[in-house]
Design brief:
Blueprint (H helix, E strand, L loop, with lengths): L5 H15 L24 H5 L15 H13 L1 H22 L4 E11 L6 H4 L7 E14 L4 H67 L5 H15 L1 H19 L8 H4 L20 H4 L1 H21 L5 E12 L11 E10 L7 H67 L5 H36 L5 H17 L5
């Protein structure tokens, strides 16, 4: 009859029972459903039906190669993006650390101990050999906490959600960066256009000054007309230094956003160029699509998932912990016999610890994690409401500014005719010089307002694209992943 060696069967059976019955305490996370309106209140049906996911690079719709080059450089060199990529590496390291808790910890060691016991103890009287001796030891020891109730798994779940959150944070940072860069580029070209308007107006008003001086010389008018004309020319000229400073400030800002020194882009950008145009359809999609398109909403959802997993980590503290310690190696008092079979040793130490009393610490920790989840849930809902507001505001501003631009185009046309008529009537003595001053001032104001409105329409389009999520898709994510890989492999840590 075959004898069953119970010592070899019991341990695997116990481990199998423990692992087979593993559960993960705490709530199982599912993304909460958020109510979204059926459509936008400020957009036509065609804009909602347009395929948003085909718009990979929304800034390319402006058709400006120099703008595209700036965005490429900023995507490579911007320091905010570099920080966001470093945070992803940190989060991934935390995930590896959390996952390592599921695996045994194995250590190898060796030692030689030389010692001599006292001859004046009770134990020494029974010792067979008195005098100094040596103990040679080498082996492995392993410890493993069996994740019966899933606390470690919940920790890995939380760390994984935080990795996802850090990636979405990179996407959100990139979207904000590109939006600010495009807006500053539009402001640069707008300021250059306004500067051109101011200079042309100064030249035209100087001609008016020359006419009034000639009429004064001929005795056809008083010197008051000359003074008024010169005052208007000087007033218009006073806007030039302010616009020049605004141009330089925009260039400085664009350089910083591109990861360069403030004056690095002056040679390339100081030359005036027209405002970029816009080719394409300003598609909006449906409000419900914001949840998948906006990186800040995906970031908030991943933070919520991490907060849910944290509840499980805290809840696991209420349950027993099972651990297993194993030892295996060689031990001998004689170096010449160290490698013999008889020098082998092994040990198996299963253990269990059960929390009995800790002053309510675990319960309070669970309540705190539940409150953190409630906070994250409220933040997620608030972020979605803010996203809806951002789109509605951007749409309202865009359509209003487009209508204003059309009206200002009519105003510029009418003001141009008024200046021509007023100057002609003044030369013939049919009107006072006040009509000329009023007409010229109205034209200058209308031209500046029209230039600002054109820039405003483009800026509102930028705001709309940002509010809609910027057209993120797989290609954009792959571009960020490649940049992250480059930054990870090229970074070094020096002591």
């Amino acid at each position: 009859m075959k004898t069953v060696r119970k010592g070899r069967v019991c341990l695997p059976a116990v481990l199998a029972a423990l692992l087979g019955g593993c559960v993960a305490v705490g709530p199982d996370y599912t993304a909460p459903a958020l109510a979204a309106p059926a459509r936008w209140s400020e957009t036509p049906d065609a804009a909602e039906a347009a395929p948003l996911l085909e718009q990979r690079a929304w800034w390319q719709a402006f058709g400006d190669p120099q703008l595209n080059a700036l965005i490429d450089e900023a995507s490579r060199s911007n320091l905010d993006l570099a920080q966001a990529r470093a945070r992803i590496v940190q989060a991934r390291s935390d995930l590896v650390i959390a996952g390592a808790a599921r695996l045994p910890v194995v250590n190898a060691g060796a030692s030689v101990t030389r010692s001599d016991s006292s001859n004046n103890t009770a134990a020494s009287a029974f010792a067979a050999n008195k005098g100094p001796g040596s103990v040679y030891l080498a082996g492995f020891d392993a410890s493993w906490e069996v994740d019966v109730f899933g606390g470690v798994r919940r920790g890995v779940e939380a760390a994984g959600a935080r990795v996802d959150a850090s990636i979405e944070s990179l996407h959100a940072t990139r979207l904000t960066l590109l939006g600010e860069l495009v807006r500053n580029y539009i402001e640069l070209r707008s300021s250059q256009a306004e500067l051109d308007i101011a200079r042309r107006s100064v030249e035209a008003q100087q001609q008016t000054v020359d006419v009034t001086r000639e009429r004064y010389r001929l005795g056809l008018t008083s010197y008051l007309d000359v003074a008024q004309a010169d005052a208007q020319r000087a007033t218009t000229a006073s806007t030039i230094p302010t616009l020049t400073a605004a141009i330089k400030q925009s260039i400085h800002r664009l350089a910083i956003l591109s990861g360069q020194a403030p004056d690095a882009l002056k040679p390339a950008l100081l030359e005036a160029r027209p405002l970029p145009g816009y080719t394409g359809f300003a598609a909006t999609g449906l409000p419900s699509e914001l949840l998948s398109r906006r990186p800040d909403l995906r970031l908030a959802e991943r933070k919520l998932a991490a907060a849910s997993a944290d509840i499980g980590v805290a809840t696991a503290g209420l349950y027993p912990k099972f651990d297993l310690t194993l030892g295996l190696g060689l031990q001998s008092n004689d170096a010449s016999r160290f490698l013999e079979r008889s020098s082998r040793y092994w040990s198996v130490i299963p253990g269990v610890s059960l929390p009995v009393f800790n002053g309510g610490r675990t319960t309070a920790l669970i309540e705190g994690k539940r409150a953190a989840y409630d906070e994250a849930l409220a933040a997620y809902r608030a972020a979605f409401n803010t996203a809806l507001e951002d789109v509605e505001n951007a749409l309202a501003a865009y359509y209003a500014e487009a209508a204003r631009r059309q009206t200002l185009e009519e105003a510029v046309s009418a003001s141009t005719q008024a200046v021509t008529l007023a100057k002609d009537r003044y030369r013939r003595g049919l009107t006072t010089f006040l009509d000329v001053l009023t007409a010229e001032n109205s034209l200058f104001t209308a031209e500046r307002s029209l230039s600002q409105s054109k820039a405003g329409v483009l800026t509102d389009l930028v705001s709309l694209h940002k509010a809609l999520g910027g057209g993120w898709n797989t290609a954009d994510a792959q571009a960020d992943s490649s940049a992250l890989a480059r930054s990870t492999t090229s970074s070094t840590v020096k002591p």
